[in-house]
Each structure stands twice: as structure tokens, then as C-alpha cells.
């Protein structure tokens, strides 16, 4: 599988609105990188940052990717205009969707290697940033969530080009993993299998079984 890089996007924390009478700060508003080469590091792309390091960032959420293959559904079915960085993603990719990539799949991009770690969970900052109160529910019901990547090997990467899958894990796909956290009708045995898959980020295990959180 080869995914075409439509855009590489970074952002810094800034005010995106108000909540409870206080400024809401987020780095969800990202812009396309103009440089031809950047560096991917364990905690993300050079020049990118997160405002809330509890909910975002860290090695398991170093880079967020979103597939443009979902755009047609959003635009035609939900009247939500799409373009690079619309979902707050670092990588806008073409050539796949959540059901065709899996937790633990490895991808090469330039000198760096990445591993899919977990789906993205909809949040109220995305709701405010998008201007659509129904966005979190639509993402939850559709599973068109994108995915996070951990950086297995740091390196310099081209902002144009290809991200190539170099290894398939045999693990649960991203959409099924997303559903396992939100769909109460999922088979309990399958949910347990997904939760125990080694490459799955710990944060998603907690989301699947919040009652287990110490």
C-alpha cells in the first residue's frame, strides 16, 4: 500500500473560541508546511505542538493522519466541506481508509518509520473548531476518525511524496478498534481481543474499559 501525501500540516497552540467564559486554547488549527523536508521525532513533527498534553501528544499520538478518501462522504452526505488540515491532522493522505489499515501496521516515509497506534477520538475542541455541533456524533457513528502514528524510527521526511506500508500487523483495523470503544453491541470476546493487541496504545485500552482505570 502506498499513500499519497496531499499535505503535511503543523500548528501551535492558540485560542479557537471560548468555553465556560474562558479562552479555549488548542493547536488543532494547522497549516501546510512550505519546506520540502522536515524531521519526524518521537514526539511529533518539527514545528508542531499540543496545548493539552494529557489528551494529545506523547509517543502514541505523535502524528495524526486523516484520509481524504473520507471527504466525499462528509461533503455529500453531511454537507461538511473538506480540505487539508480540516480535521486538525498532521498528514492528509490519499489512498486508504480506516477499514484498510490496522493497529500495528508499519509505514515508511522518507528516513522515518511509523506505526499505527490508535484511532482518533472526537472531542469538543474539534466541535468548536469545525463550527458544527454535530461533528463529534457524526464521527462516532461513522468511524471516519483517522488514526494516530507513533514514530518508531526518527528521520527526515519529504513533505511531498509517498508513505508506504512496509508491514501488516494482522491486528484489528482502525474502524473496528474505534467501534470497540463506542459500540455497546460489539461482541465482548472480540472487544477483549482488540484490547489485548500489543501495539494498541494504552490510552485506547482505557477508553475501551474505563472501569479498569486505576
Walkthrough of the structure:
The chain has 214 residues and is an alpha+beta fold. It has a single domain, classed as PK beta-barrel domain-like (M1 Pyruvate Kinase, Domain 3). 22% of the residues lie in helices and 32% in strands. It is built from 6 helices and 13 strands. Strand 2 and strand 3 form a beta hairpin. The protein is globular, with a radius of gyration of 16 Å. The N and C termini lie far apart (39 Å). The model has no long low-confidence stretch (mean pLDDT 94).
Brief write-up:
With 214 residues, this protein is of the alpha+beta class. The protein is 22% helix and 32% strand. The chain has helices at residues 71-78, 124-130, 135-142, 174-182, 188-195, 202-208, and strands spanning 2-10, 14-19, 22-26, 31-32, 37-41, 44-45, 63-67, 91-94, 106-109, 112-119, 147-153, 155-158, 161-167.
Q: How is this fold's topology laid out?
A:
Elements lengths: L1 E9 L3 E6 L2 E5 L4 E2 L4 E5 L2 E2 L17 E5 L3 H8 L12 E4 L11 E4 L2 E8 L4 H7 L4 H8 L4 E7 L1 E4 L2 E7 L6 H9 L5 H8 L6 H7 L6
Parallel strand pairs: 7-8
Antiparallel strand pairs: 1-4, 1-8, 1-13, 2-3, 5-6, 5-12, 7-11, 9-10, 9-13, 10-11
| SSE order, one letter for each helix or strand | EEEEEEEHEEEHHEEEHHH
Describe the strand arrangement of the main beta sheet, using strand numbers: 1-8-7-11-10-9-13
For this structure, the CATH topology is M1 Pyruvate Kinase, Domain 3
Query: In whole angstroms, how far apart are the ends?
Result: 39 Å
- Helix and strand content put the structural class at alpha+beta
Average pLDDT: 94
Count up the domains. Answer: 1
Number of helices: 6
**Assembly form of the protein:** single chain
Shape: globular
Uncertain regions spanning at least 5 consecutive residues: none
Query: Main sheet, how many strands, which sense, barrel?
Result: 7 strands, mixed, barrel
Strand content: 25-35%
Helix content bin = 10-25%
CATH superfamily: PK beta-barrel domain-like
Amino acid at each position: 500500500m502506498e499513500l499519497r501525501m496531499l499535505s503535511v500540516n503543523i500548528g501551535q497552540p492558540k485560542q479557537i473560541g471560548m468555553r465556560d467564559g474562558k479562552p479555549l486554547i488548542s493547536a488543532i488549527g494547522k497549516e501546510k508546511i512550505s519546506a520540502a523536508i522536515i524531521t519526524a521525532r518521537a514526539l511529533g513533527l518539527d514545528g508542531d505542538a499540543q496545548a493539552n498534553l494529557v489528551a494529545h501528544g506523547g509517543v502514541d499520538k505523535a502524528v495524526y493522519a486523516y484520509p481524504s478518501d473520507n471527504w466525499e462522504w462528509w461533503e455529500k452526505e453531511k454537507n461538511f466541506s473538506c480540505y487539508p488540515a480540516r480535521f486538525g491532522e498532521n498528514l492528509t493522505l490519499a489512498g486508504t481508509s480506516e477499514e484498510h489499515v490496522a493497529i500495528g501496521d508499519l509505514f515508511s516515509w522518507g528516513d522515518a518509520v511509523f506505526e499505527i497506534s490508535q484511532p482518533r477520538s472526537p472531542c469538543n475542541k474539534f466541535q468548536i473548531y469545525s463550527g458544527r455541533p454535530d461533528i463529534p456524533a457524526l464521527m462516532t457513528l461513522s468511524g471516519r476518525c483517522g488514526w494516530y502514528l507513533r514514530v518508531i524510527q526518527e528521520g527526515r521526511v519529504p513533505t511531498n511524496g509517498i508513505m508506504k506500508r512496509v508491514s501488516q500487523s494482522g491486528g484489528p483495523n482502525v474502524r473496528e478498534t474505534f467501534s470497540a470503544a463506542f459500540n455497546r453491541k460489539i461482541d465482548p470476546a472480540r472487544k477483549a481481543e482488540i484490547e489485548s493487541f500489543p501495539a494498541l496504545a494504552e490510552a485506547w485500552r482505557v477508553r475501551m474499559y474505563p472501569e479498569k482505570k486505576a
